[in-house]
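Note to self: keep these together.
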Amino acid sequence: MEERSVVRINIGMCFDRTFPPAFVVEVAERLERDGVDQLWIIEDCFYTAGVSLASAALARTRRLQVGLGILPAVARNPAITAMEIATLANLAPSRVLAGIGHGVQEWMEQMGARTTSPLTTLDEVLTVCRRLLAGETVTFEGREVRMRDVTLDQPPEVVPPVLAGVRGPRSLAMAGRSADGVVLAEGAGPEYVEWALDQAGRPRPFRVSVFTALCVTEDAREAHQTMAPFLAGMLGSPNPALERHSHIEEMRDSFVRGGVEALAGMPAAWWHEVGAIGTFSDAVEHVESLVAAGAHDVSLFPAADVDVARSQLDDVARLAAAVR
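Structure:
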C-alpha cells in the first residue's frame, strides 16, 4: 500500500432516497450537535431531489458538510448543475461536496435523457462543471455537451470538490483525469478502495469518499443475519466493489449452496470487507481499514426504516468519536 499523508478523517451519514424530506432537518441537526462531520444526500430517480434537500440541511446547520451523492450527469444541463453547486457553495462556503455520476441508464432512458456514451458524457460534464465553478467563461463543443460563452455570475469563493460517482476501471481512470476525487458506493471495502485509487492513477490531490453499510449490534451474529439479504442483493447484480473482496468466490459458492442463511454464517472477517456490520468494535475496524486504504470521508448508510435510522444516529456519532 502506498504511504499517504496524514489527513483528518471525516465521518458522516447517508440520507436514504426513501426518507421523507422533512426528516433531513432532524438528521442534519443531530449530526451537527453530536460532532459528526458530514451528511450525504442520496439522489436517485425518481425519489427525493439532492439539491433541495442539501439546501435545507445547510440552512439548519453551521458546521456540517453536506454532500450530493450523486447527481446524474444528464438529469440537468451541466451549466445548471454548476449553477446549483455554486449557489450552495456560496450559501455555505467550504461545506459542500459535489458528486456527479453516470446515472442508472434505465432511469435515463425512462426520462428521455439516455446518452449514447455515458463515459464520454460524464467526462465532459465534469470538465465543464469544474471550469464554470472555477470562474471561467466556457465555450465547449464536445460529443454530448455543447455551450457557448457561459459564465457563472456568482462562482463560489471557495470552490467545492467535484467528485465522480463511478465504479468500473474505465470510469475510475477518467475520474483521475477529470474530477477532484471519487464517491465509492456501498460494498467498497479496503481492497476495493486501493484498487480504485490504482485505476484512477493515484493523482494528488484526490479525494476518496466512501459510503458503507451500517448495522451495529451487541451480538455480531445478529448484525450478520440482518444484513445477509442486503449482501445477497449485491451478489445478484454487477458490483465492481464486491468483486475485489478476497473471498468473493467462496461467498458466491456459499450463497448458491445455502442461500441467505449461509451468508449470515460467513466468517466475521469476511463481513469486515462488506460494511460496518457486527459489533461496535467490528464497525470501528471496518472504518479504520477504509481510512488506511486511502479514504478521506466515510459515510455510514443506515437502514431504510426511519425509526431504525434515527436510532443509528447514535452509532454514527460513536464511530465519529472513536476513529479520531
